[in-house]
Amino acid sequence: MKRSRKIINGLIILIILMQVIQPTKNTAEGISENDISKTYAISTDVHQIFIEKCYDCHSHNTQYPWYNYIQPIGWWMAAHIHDGKEHLNFSEFKTYDPKKAAHKLEEISEAVNDGWMPLDSYTFLHQEARISANDREAINTWMKTLPITLEKK
């Protein structure tokens, strides 16, 4: 057998074996008791915006697309979700101390208003996750009702 044929066969076997090692799924039953909706009075429409556009990477409730089961894409997504939850976890928002919660709310406001969330790499395949002008307005209106003071820049 030619050397190139052996290399190709070896790569095929490696790719097949990679499919066996699946990352742990980020799924939970329903909304957590520590969810942001249990921390603040949040309108149904704003909570739905967060669920549809943010929760895949920033909660314990990721909705996985079919391509997540193809490795190494699944590993990349698992790392991305882990990183997203490190920065902000809507499912654990109630556990944040008040100063940290206020800071996270400031970051949500910045992310929505400056347009750096959701990430372009996510919205490339998930167009429905883009934050619309109506979404932005709903979130900003809700933020004004919160019993905290967000820093004005």
Number of helical segments with 4 or more residues: 8
Number of folding domains?
1
Q: Oligomeric state of the chains?
A: single chain
* Alpha carbon gyration radius: 19 Å
Strand content: under 5%
Q: How many beta strands in the DSSP annotation?
A: 0
Mean pLDDT metric = 91
Q: Shape, please?
A: elongated
Poorly predicted ranges: none
Helical coverage, percent range:
40-55%
Measure the end-to-end span: 67 Å
Class per helix and strand makeup = mainly alpha
Major beta sheet, specifics? Answer: none
What is the secondary structure topology, with strand pairs?
Elements: H1 3-18, H2 36-39, H3 44-53, H4 55-58, H5 73-87, H6 98-114, H7 120-123, H8 133-144
Helix pairs in contact: 6-8
